[in-house]
Amino acid sequence: MNAVTVAAGAVQLVGGVVLAPLLPGLVQHWKARLQGRRGPTPVQPYRDLRRLWGKSAVAVEGTSVVYRLAPSVVAASLGAAVLLVPVAAQAPDWGLGHDVLVLVGLLALARFAVAASSWDTGNGFSLMGASRDLTLSAFVEGTLLVSLAVATLVTGTTDLRAMIAGSVGGAWSSPLLAIGAVPFAMVVLAETGRQPVDNPDTHLELTMIHEGPLLEYAGRDLAYLQWAIAARHWVVLVIAAQIFLPHPGGPWWQLGILPVALGLLCGLLAVTETLVAKMRLLEVPRLLAVGALVALLGIAARLAGIA
Amino acid sequence: MTGVPLLVGLAAIAVGGVLGAGRRTFTVGLLLQVGGACAVGVAGFWTLAVGGTLGAGFTNALRPSLGVDGLSALFLGALGLVAAPALTFSLRYLPPSPRGRLVSVLTAGFLLVLALVLAARDPVTFLTGWELMTLLPAAVILVARDGDVAARRTVFTYLAVTHLGGVGTWVAVLLLAREGAFGTHATIATGSALQVGIALAALIGMGTKAGVMPLHVWLPRAHPIAPAPVSALMSGVMIKVAVYALVRVLVDWVGVLPIWFGVVVLGAGALSAVGGVTYALFQHELKRLLALHSIENIGIIVLALGACLILRSRGSSAWAAFALAAALLHTVNHAVFKALLFLGAGAFERATGSLELDRLGGLLRRMPWTGGAFLVGAMAIAGLPPLNGFASEWLTMQVLLRLPVYGGVGDGIAGAVALAVLAATAALALLCFVKVVGLVLLGPRRGAGTPGEAPAPMAAAVGVLALGCVVLGVAPGLLFGSLVRLAPWGANAPTHAALRLPGTGSVPGIGIAVLLVALTATLLLMRGRRVAAPAPGWACGQLVEAPLNWTSAGFTKPLRLVLEVVLRPRREITVRTEGGVVQEVTYQGHVPHLIDERIYAPVARAALVVAAHARRLQSGSLGMYVAYLIGLVVVLLGAARIGLFR
Prior knowledge:
Chain A is about 70% helix and about 0% strand. By secondary structure, chain A is an all-alpha fold. Chain A has one domain (about 5-305). In chain A, helix 3 runs antiparallel to helix 9 and helix 4 (about 65-85) runs antiparallel to helix 5. Chain B has helices at about 5-20, 25-50, 70-95, 100-120, 125-145, 150-180, 195-210, 220-225, 230-255, 260-280, 285-315, 315-350, 365, 370-380, 390-405, 410-440, 455-475, 475-485, 510-525, 550-555, 555-560, 565, 595-615, 620-640, and strands at about 55, 65-70, 570-580, 580-590. Classes of the chains: A mainly alpha (about 300), B mainly alpha (about 650). At the A-B interface, helix 4, helix 5, helix 6, helix 7 and helix 9 of A face helix 15, helix 16, helix 19 and helix 21 of B.
């Protein structure tokens, strides 16, 4: 194992586990600035986590083991996802492989645990959020897979390390990747629960999607779930930066440019949240369908020898 | 020699079936059958692992011959794998009453007939077994539901649809036999009308039996009304025997098919997958929901088969073999988790007296073993790692991803669309099974009574199948290597516990499972036990009481709204007011089955009209019938005279 691999492993672990909460923190901070407010500092998520860590969890009457297990399962799935997604083409193998479709499965596992816990508590607002999340996820996963099909067509593999290596280029190495970036951007918005798909700032139960199922949790359980949301930001943004955005070929360059790219993407999320209002729930599938269509057109153009 | 345990196992099932007819030997008979099924399962997988064949080879001659090769062995293994728990379950599920004993005898016969189709090596035995395979479950349902008029009508629909569709099987098999292609490939020219005709006939005939949309109408009707162990066998094994026949004909016997045919198969698979899961979502009865999910999973299998045909036409024989292995692996996986879910449903029905989703609830605490196993099965069918459903769905997605890589514009785009459909299907299956788990296992009790844990044999049966879901999910590669070697064009893959394919990041099931369990355990320990006193759930300050419970219809409402244009749900709200005050609001809504309403209902109506006209010919007078006969003879003589028969 050479120095690059060790460094890539360290960036992956430290970034995914420790620095991940900084990403939603930065988005919230910059969004507030863009809207002319002072807003919370970027380290606000850490303060929230510390506060939650000191509090006791709650037990809801009439719940079963599923309610107690769910936050740990969610955090474990996202932990596995962090280990799965490499930050550079040379990354250590944590015994999970690096297949991008396994990542889809891990995210689904987290979604299942959250939704099952909502059924366990029986809270209507939790269930409302869970049912909306799962409904949208059908369209999100369809769009995600065609955008990944674009990347596979360019790089010939679903191994994330090889995908990073295969999509290297100063500008986009293949115009197809730029096309694939469009649907993937929509997937990023949906997976991170950002406007126009969901509003992470909302405190109105009727409009919640991703926050809804968390209503019945407190203390360390809630801390796990909050961290999982941050880790979800990390995972999808790293894939966006290292595959769908132009990135350099040298391993040290790849590691060095990552913070810049992640910052840029957080800035883009902040700008999007400022400019675009939340969509009506039933309109979101249409948005995602447009993304999928773009990717399909890109694939068709490639197969016809145009792109 | 794996032939000996296979024969002993089948003999044990036969003897056990006979013994099951007696009141005193009922339990002994069932136990003997369980042993026989275990032997068949072990012998099947063993034959698959060591390769080679048993008994006769395929023949086009019309004389009975039986034998087993790798593909047959795989399905025999799956048969044993499902039958052993299903029969164990029957020990306590079936009462030793005359009716229960008759059901048990017929079930043993059903198992033997399924094995007969799998071991048939000539067209006659195959078609005999094929017809019996349709008739025996019908008989079981009629016996088990004696006097139930609705069930009798359903059985009629089942027989009518499968026999009409079954014509395709006869046409395909007899044409193959005439061409000398029953059991051998490379005798039919690629792209010839004959080849396409055989393939289409097989797709229709065997697709009907497998439940491929839009030929599936019988399946969601017939599967739910059978006794639970028979439902498990029908969904777990019978429709898989149809898949076996499809694989034989399409992948092997007709040779390399044109690309467009692969796209047609892909389309049928995509329609079945997404259609099955969508209609399953809006069901409120557990067994009917599970039956519709069988259509979804058959769709996933057919998607992989379609990918196999396309990749083979495109000359990528390695990936075509992987696609075939994906289809076969999902076949085995679905057999395991669907049998588990149907048996679990049977246990819940026995404990609570209901299968209405909105009348169950809270069963995980009351039936921890059965409920826990059911939870594993639900997670497996929803395609969650590290369980078996995930492994085969991952494989299927991988092979669909290769269609744009190896294909042209048409099949490449078809592959990408199929991929998106499969991903959406998986997500919808997750939505559906979260709903099932929530309504059946979690939350408060919604129905009357205080059910307790199922009897030991029933709990053991679902427990073993849950273990199967875990083992096949953690180490799918053990089976995968043998499945790749089943490709008739010769392909190879090394046998690992993990799934490792070129150009993928591989699925090390053991690593994923160990890491997930270890992380969850660590996080649970870190969380500690400090918990505030239990309090009622919070819902804007309202107490979560029974009238606020969410229902199956409520949870799927967002999807119903999104898909309104396609599904055309119906709702009816009546408000009764008295003196300007609302007294009562009744709401009724359902999602009609469009294929039933738009395709089958008009066809059935037209058929009835034609039949009514045809009936006028039957006047009942003898003279009229004699006149018909004379007329027929005259017409035939005339036809012979002008040389029509030469």
